[in-house]
Amino acid sequence: MAHIQIPSPLRQYTGKQAAVSVPAKTVGDALAGLVAQHPDLKRHLYSDDGKLRAFVNVYVNDEDMRYLQKEATVLSDGDTISIVPSIAGGNCQNDRRTCNSGVCKS
Predict the structure, then answer these.
(1) How far apart are CA 27 and CA 59, in angstroms?
(2) With helix as H, strand as E and coil as C, how does 25-54 read?
(3) Which CATH number belongs to the domain containing residue 99 in this structure?
(4) With bands split at pLDDT 50, 70 and 90, how would you rate the model's confidence at 85?
(5) C-alpha distances in Å from residue 31, one per residue of 51, 52, 68, 72
(6) Model confidence band, residue 86 (pLDDT cutoffs 50, 70, 90)
(7) What is the model's pLDDT at position 79?
(8) Alpha-carbon span 48 to 43, nearest angstrom
(9) Which structural domain range is residue 27 located in?
(10) Which residues contact 60 (CB under 8 A, 6 or more apart)?
(11) Domain count of the chain?
């Protein structure tokens, strides 16, 4: 079984579970099993063409799967998968600040 850590913003789609266990041989299998158990997650993890969204980072035992074999990364029993969505900054104008080359200044 692979154990998938669910980030706080996505827990509303997993019945508030912080982790979900799924039988899987690869990361792709694990994510497919997760989405099969919790279908509402699919639109948050995958684009319409079925590819993992660019802002969704997936780690296997603290290693970025993009530097392993991506979704084909083979799992061992007890491996932990962490889903880490990227977080972007806010809008400077909404913050009453001015932007200069992407750097916000008061």
Answers:
(1) 9
(2) CEHHHHHHHHHHHCHHHHHHHECCCCCECC
(3) 3.10.20.30
(4) confident
(5) 12, 10, 16, 11
(6) confident
(7) 93
(8) 8
(9) 2-105
(10) 27, 68, 73, 75, 79, 80, 81
(11) 1
**What is the amino acid identity at position 6?**
I
pTM higher than 0.70, yes or no? yes
Name, in order, each residue with C-beta under 8 angstroms of 46's C-beta and a sequence gap of 6 or more: 35, 52, 53
pLDDT in tens, 49-64: 999 998 899 999 999 9
| Residue-wise pLDDT tens digits, 1-43 | 899 999 999 999 999 999 999 999 999 999 999 999 999 999 9
> How far apart are the C-alpha atoms of 7 and 49, rounded to whole Å?
23
Question: What does the chain come to in residues?
Answer: 106
Number of CB atoms found within 10 A of residue 19's CB? 13
